[in-house]
Amino acid sequence: MSEVQVKGNPNSGLLGATLGFFVGFAAVSLFGPTVVFLQEVVGLSAALAGLLISIPNLSGSLLRIPFAAMVEKDGGRRPFLVLLILSLLGVVGIWLVMIQPAATIADLFPLLLGLGVLGGCGIATFSVGIGQTSYWFPQNRQGTALGIYAGIGNLAPGIFALVLTGLTIPRLGLPGSYLIWSIFLALGILAYLVTGRNAWFFQYRRAGLPDEQARVRAEQDGQQLFPNGKALESLKASAKIPQTWMLVLVYFTTFGGFLALTAWLPKFGIGYMGFDLGVAGMLTAAYSIGASLLRVAGGKLSDIFGGRQTALLSLGAGLVGSLMVALMPRGAGTIAGLLVMALGMGVGNAAVFKLVPQFVPRAVGGAAGWIGGLGAFGGFVIPLGLAAVLESSGYAQGFWIFAGLFVLALMMIIALDGQKTKEE
């Protein structure tokens, strides 16, 4: 087996994972405009609108846990492709529903929810890419590499919200937009097939080398992080550690909140701010792209200043922003508050994963699975809460939900200070 050749390097590995996540994660932005369209043609209630907005995040969050575990054996490439193909099937199915008459679409609403679950599978690629990227990089470069991966991948919802509302929907309508997105997703899957690479250890293993020999060869190539082959045990071990669940709540606030607002803002912009679909899309893009770029910076800041200090500052900013939206009169202050929330959530998202090796050092993979999966579950739960508050109190009052979550997240980070297990 000495003739076995491996391909790729850390930078190309990061490129492939980032491209795959970018393609899959764009599904977050699809359902906000869909809800606006369906409310016009079939008269959806606020509750059903909230359910439809959030449904892709149900599969996009919960599937992160088992698929993250698959990375321990596969390296990431296979689960990445499975999730992207499932997402493509969901988007194509939604396009087929959208080309039906309005009365038929209303009857097919349960099917639309099921297709939304499939479409959301692309969102679950996040945890796969986290593992795939991590195995390419040493610990002292993890914050920066994962910040780039997640930050650039997170740009997708904002960019596609802008494209959908400003370009394709006005010209092609929502059915045509889903068709265009299906084509783009198919091309993205092909691009990942070309660029997506597992770290060297997994390539040697796939070529037939025993694990010990594969590890030696990979170490010679420069790989430093390796799977322990005990994904289920890692999930079980991390579940017994209180710090895991404290970080789940923090990520539920920052990343779950990011998903929720990215999906909710088209409806918020039209229903509360009085914008047309194009301007509401620009608001969504400004928030989503801003938070994503700040996540890249958050990874670097976490490497420099530490995850805890970065998290405290970012969560404090998120709290201020949510209070601005809840308390200030509708207008420029509302938009400013949303952008401050983008700052808090974007930087906070990066800080959380810097904290995982510090506080759960013996079960990093399992903890990342719980945090990434259950944290992202906020993207499903929070829009349902926003819809419920909308029916009883109005749009702005829903942001008290975010304020409460930021307070709880700050309490978790402060409590972590007294439970520190490892300092880098």
From TrEMBL:
<keyword id="KW-0534">Nitrate assimilation</keyword>
<feature type="transmembrane region" description="Helical">
    <location>
        <begin position="335"/>
        <end position="356"/>
    </location>
</feature>
<feature type="transmembrane region" description="Helical">
    <location>
        <begin position="178"/>
        <end position="196"/>
    </location>
</feature>
<dbReference type="InterPro" id="IPR020846">
    <property type="entry name" value="MFS_dom"/>
</dbReference>
<feature type="domain" description="Major facilitator superfamily (MFS) profile">
    <location>
        <begin position="13"/>
        <end position="421"/>
    </location>
</feature>
<dbReference type="Pfam" id="PF07690">
    <property type="entry name" value="MFS_1"/>
</dbReference>
<keyword id="KW-0472">Membrane</keyword>
<dbReference type="InterPro" id="IPR036259">
    <property type="entry name" value="MFS_trans_sf"/>
</dbReference>
<keyword id="KW-1133">Transmembrane helix</keyword>
<feature type="transmembrane region" description="Helical">
    <location>
        <begin position="277"/>
        <end position="298"/>
    </location>
</feature>
<feature type="transmembrane region" description="Helical">
    <location>
        <begin position="111"/>
        <end position="131"/>
    </location>
</feature>
<feature type="transmembrane region" description="Helical">
    <location>
        <begin position="80"/>
        <end position="99"/>
    </location>
</feature>
<comment type="similarity">
    <text>Belongs to the major facilitator superfamily. Nitrate/nitrite porter (TC 2.A.1.8) family.</text>
</comment>
<feature type="transmembrane region" description="Helical">
    <location>
        <begin position="245"/>
        <end position="265"/>
    </location>
</feature>
<dbReference type="GO" id="GO:0016020">
    <property type="term" value="C:membrane"/>
</dbReference>
<feature type="transmembrane region" description="Helical">
    <location>
        <begin position="143"/>
        <end position="166"/>
    </location>
</feature>
<feature type="transmembrane region" description="Helical">
    <location>
        <begin position="12"/>
        <end position="31"/>
    </location>
</feature>
<dbReference type="InterPro" id="IPR044772">
    <property type="entry name" value="NO3_transporter"/>
</dbReference>
<feature type="transmembrane region" description="Helical">
    <location>
        <begin position="395"/>
        <end position="416"/>
    </location>
</feature>
<dbReference type="GO" id="GO:0042128">
    <property type="term" value="P:nitrate assimilation"/>
</dbReference>
<feature type="transmembrane region" description="Helical">
    <location>
        <begin position="310"/>
        <end position="329"/>
    </location>
</feature>
<dbReference type="GO" id="GO:0015112">
    <property type="term" value="F:nitrate transmembrane transporter activity"/>
</dbReference>
<keyword id="KW-0812">Transmembrane</keyword>
<dbReference type="InterPro" id="IPR011701">
    <property type="entry name" value="MFS"/>
</dbReference>
<feature type="transmembrane region" description="Helical">
    <location>
        <begin position="37"/>
        <end position="59"/>
    </location>
</feature>
<feature type="transmembrane region" description="Helical">
    <location>
        <begin position="368"/>
        <end position="389"/>
    </location>
</feature>
<protein>
    <submittedName>
        <fullName>MFS transporter</fullName>
    </submittedName>
</protein>
